[in-house]
Amino acid sequence: MDGMHLVRPGPQHLAEYTAALERGWSADNLRGAAAAREELDRIAADPVAFLALMDDPDALGPPVTLPDGTVKPRLPSLRRWMWVDSADGGGFAGSIGLRWAKDGAPLPPHVLGHIGYAVVPWQRRRGYATQALAALLPLARAQGLSSVEITTDPDNTASQRVVTANGGVLVERFDKGAAYGHAPGLRFRIEL
User: Fold this and answer.
1) CA 99 to chain centre
2) Are strands 55-56 and 64-65 parallel, antiparallel or unpaired?
3) Which residues of the chain have pLDDT under 50?
4) What is the helix (H) or strand (E) element at residue 5, kind and residue range?
5) pLDDT tens for residues 40-66?
6) Which end of the chain has fewer CB atoms at under 10 Å, N or C?
7) What whole-number distance in Å separates Cα of residue 64 and Cα of residue 87?
8) Which residues, including other chains, have CB under 8 Å from residue 18's CB and lie 6 or more apart?
9) Is 36 helix (H, G, I), strand (E, B) or coil?
10) 169-184 core/surface letters (b: 16 or more CB in 10 A; e: else)
């Protein structure tokens, strides 16, 4: 039976992660190919530094580029990779990340939520995002968060099912703001 678990990104995982980026996948659902190219460049330049920033509780990583090109300081964050154990070809299945504001402050307006995730197309519809979110929630609690917010596009019913399966409750429909082209969004909250 296939089993998915979260792994802390390490050298033993990097080749499969890089291969997913080269196939056109990106953990950045908004910037897609541009974000994938940036990650590939950082991996090529210094893979050890790239992996070290997957756990970045002090926000030492590079600034974040928003879809409109605006550059903002990075928040404290951590990322885990979804890893599938399977006799017929498991491996890298996706990425999930947690970000938070220092000292329990609210997220800045340009940060749409605490958690973001992306599953590679060839591993979708297997429940991995739902499992990954469930596995990440204890890490959010360990950072002192009492709840997390996750946003989805109104038409992304698959992501909405992932969130609600983990106890998420829709709290508002909102405008994502200028950096995101004023696109509509749905904000869910999961109490920890």
Assistant:
1) 9
2) unpaired
3) 1
4) strand 3-7
5) 999 999 999 999 999 999 999 889 888
6) N
7) 38
8) 40, 43
9) helix
10) eeeeeeebeebbeeee
